[in-house]
TrEMBL record:
Classification via Pfam families: DHquinase_II
Complexes and interactors: Homododecamer.
Pathway: Metabolic intermediate biosynthesis; chorismate biosynthesis; chorismate from D-erythrose 4-phosphate and phosphoenolpyruvate: step 3/7
Enzyme Commission designation: 4.2.1.10
Reactions listed under catalytic activity: 3-dehydroquinate = 3-dehydroshikimate + H2O
Single GO molecular function: 3-dehydroquinate dehydratase activity
Species this chain originates from: Aliarcobacter cibarius
Annotated positions for site Transition state stabilizer: R17
Family, as annotated: Belongs to the type-II 3-dehydroquinase family.
Known role: Catalyzes a trans-dehydration via an enolate intermediate.
Official protein name in the record: 3-dehydroquinate dehydratase
Length: 158
């Protein structure tokens, strides 16, 4: 099982920026903890972070045929990027959107995620632990899809 973890703008500043909102954990620490959990479950992770919308769109598109699922924190782009939303919809695979803070307790403009509508599910407000929740959700969804495909293949072989 292979999962892409895509991080949006300013997440490279975690641990420095607005600690009262995002806590003191760094992106590197989140990735290390996530990698430990993935290693324990035999999952390969690919990490990517960009402050540029087009690079995020490109990375989502590159996932087609190369990974089983995507965990994405589009950060500020979740509120504005139709391009990232369309890329998520185009790849047609399990996608979990993660937000460190609870976007529904934030400013009004942050309470709407345009990318969420194309994602399979959204986890918001659990800090760095939200990424672990996302990993568990993706493991479950990918496992279910594999089982369904195996059942279909067995049925058509009969």
């Amino acid at each position: 099982m292979k999962i892409a973890v895509i991080q949006g703008p300013n997440l490279n500043m975690l641990g420095i920026r607005e600690q009262h909102i995002y806590g003191g954990i760094t992106l590197e620490q989140i990735h290390a903890q996530l990698q430990n959990a993935a290693d324990q479950n035999g999952i390969e992770l690919e990490f990517f972070q960009s402050n540029f919308e087009g690079e995020i769109v490109d990375r989502v598109q590159e996932c087609l045929g190369t990974v089983d699922g995507i965990m994405i924190n589009p950060a500020a782009y979740s509120h504005t990027s139709i391009a990232i939303r369309d890329a998520i919809a185009a790849v047609n695979m399990p996608v979990v959107e993660v937000h460190i803070s609870n976007i529904y307790r934030r400013e009004e403009f942050r309470q709407k995620s345009v990318t969420a509508g194309a994602s399979t599910g959204v986890i918001t407000g659990f800090g760095g632990f939200g990424y672990h929740m996302g990993l568990i959700a993706l493991m479950q969804m990918i496992g279910e899809l594999r089982a369904l495909n195996e059942a279909r293949n067995a049925q058509s072989a009969e």
